[in-house]
Amino acid sequence: MMSIEVIAVERKQLYAARGANPAEREELRRNVRQRSMELWQQKWSASVKGRWTHRLIPKLDSWINRQHDEVNFYLTQMLSNHGCFRAYLHGFRHENITDYPAGCGAPEDAEHLFFHCARFGQARGELNVRLGGGIEPETIVRFILEKEENWSAVSSFAKVIMTKLREEEQSRKKAREPETIAPRVMQRRLTDFWKH
Predict the structure, then answer these.
(1) pLDDT tens-digit series, residues 47-94
(2) What is the separation, in whole angstroms, between the first and last Cα of the chain?
(3) Torsion of CA 35, 39, 45, 51, to 10 degrees
(4) DSSP 78-139
(5) For labeling, which of 27, 62, 159, 196 is most exposed (least CB within 10 Å)?
(6) Spatial CA neighbour of 79 closest among 161, 158, 183
(7) H/E element holding 162?
């Protein structure tokens, strides 16, 4: 999403031209939007945040001007590296470790799961064949922007991975529940007791 700072500059310039004739206003609107996109791209490329997403989508204009589909819940997690990934959850102290315990020791994040993890090797191989090969973080968005079938295939792959991760997270959470829920129940009972 374009930053509020860039949007404010754009709106200020458009407001200043409100008295121009319709043709001039339309030309100005296109020019101002182009400058806004350039400024946004500069900020996007220089930012230290969102580096995973930047690696996938380095050029904002191709993403913004795509011709098909919306980003769904599963693709959002893949593109942002925010979701049921142990490495992400560990940062919020929702997980004790960052990697898959029975795995290779790599952090359980979007890059590892979508592009390297043996757990999803078969599904990744099928996707690779379907897209014509060469799936990497630097190429995946180019593939999904090429045609709607590619978008659907990558979206389905993301759904398989994220659904499995969510199931695993829920199982771990349930296994930890007795130790974390008991103090809350006891606290609530004491609180209820003192109310009466």
Answers:
(1) 999 999 999 999 999 999 998 878 999 999 999 999 999 889 888 888
(2) 51
(3) -110
(4) HHHT-SS-HHHHHTTTS-S-SB-TTTTS-B-SHHHHHHT-GGGHHHHHHHHHHHTS---TTT
(5) 196
(6) 158
(7) helix 148-195
Across all residues in the chain, what is the average pLDDT? Answer: 88
- What is d(CA 73, CA 77) in angstroms, rounded to the nearest whole number? 7
User: Of 97 and 11, which is predicted with more confidence?
Assistant: 11
φ and ψ at residue 83, rounded to 5 degrees: 165, -145
If 0-12 CB within 10 Å is exposed, 13-18 middle and 19+ buried, where does residue 56 land?
Answer: buried
pLDDT band at 181 (very low <50, low <70, confident <90, very high): very low
- Long-range contact pairs involving 59-67 (C-beta distance under 8 Å, separation at least 24): 61/37, 62/141, 62/145, 63/141, 63/145, 64/37, 66/145
Q: Which amino acid is at 196?
A: H
> Where does the pLDDT of residue 28 fall: very low under 50, low under 70, confident under 90, or very high at 90 and above?
very high
Phi/psi-derived region of residue 103, left when phi > 0, alpha when psi is between -120 and 50, beta in every other case: beta
Run of H or E including 24: helix 22-46
**Residue type, position 118, single letter:** A
Number of C-beta neighbours around residue 78 at 10 A: 27
| Cβ count within 10 A of residue 103 | 15
